[in-house]
Amino acid sequence: MTDAKLLPLYPLAGVVRCFEPAQELPDNVNRDSPAVFVMTDLRQQVAYTIEPNATIGQALRHMKSAGVRLLFVVNSDKDVLGLITTTDILGEKPVQFHTEQQQRYEEILVRDIMTPHARLEAMDMNDVLRASVRDIVATLQSSGRRHALVLDRNATDGRPGIRGIFSASQISRQLGEAIHPAAVATTFAEVEMVLNS
Which segments of the chain does DSSP mark as H helices, in order? Predict the structure, then answer.
């Protein structure tokens, strides 16, 4: 202990919060920039979550306060059960659920309109590392989605986990141009409507 140097200690006066992870993405990118320049990396940024029994009103308030448009729906063990977006909450899903279930808007829960885990798809981090922003934009536009998830293997146990998120609105800000994913028909009725139009 003779070589040890004591560090000064300071009072915590005025300190009210802990630091939170905050990834700094480049302000300006172009379509040839590496895809990781526009990916929210969940090793560096907090993944915002909500429980399935929260109301969609609570979810929307949480999104607004966090400044995000997507929440992971998790159980008490933090397992991902699905996700919910502002489009889910402000779009047709609550209206359809209200009509079918005769439930008031204030009573609709996140679990009622979220996209469940079984319906989620993701890119692989190894593919993302070789991709450009142009590739991500094309993938979002082709799939008709505003968000895309990225899977990677955990370095400690080798299990797959959600490593990142691509967001059309985030990419639009960084590119300085609007990215509009195409509407993709997902049901037979929608396919028929597209074919007949």
Answer: 56-66, 86-90, 92-101, 110-113, 125-129, 133-143, 168-175, 188-196
Read off the pLDDT of residues 102-128 as tens digits, 9 standing for 90 and up. Answer: 888 889 999 999 999 999 999 999 999
Q: Is the pTM of this model over 0.85?
A: no
If one looks up domain 35-196 in CATH, what number appears? 3.10.580.10
CA distance 141 to 144: 5
CA distance 115 to 111: 8
Which residue type sits at 191? V
Residues 16 and 18: their CA atoms lie apart, in Å, by 7
Give Cβ neighbours of residue 36 (< 8 Å, ≥ 6 apart): 128, 129
Task: Give domain limits for the chain.
Answer: 35-196
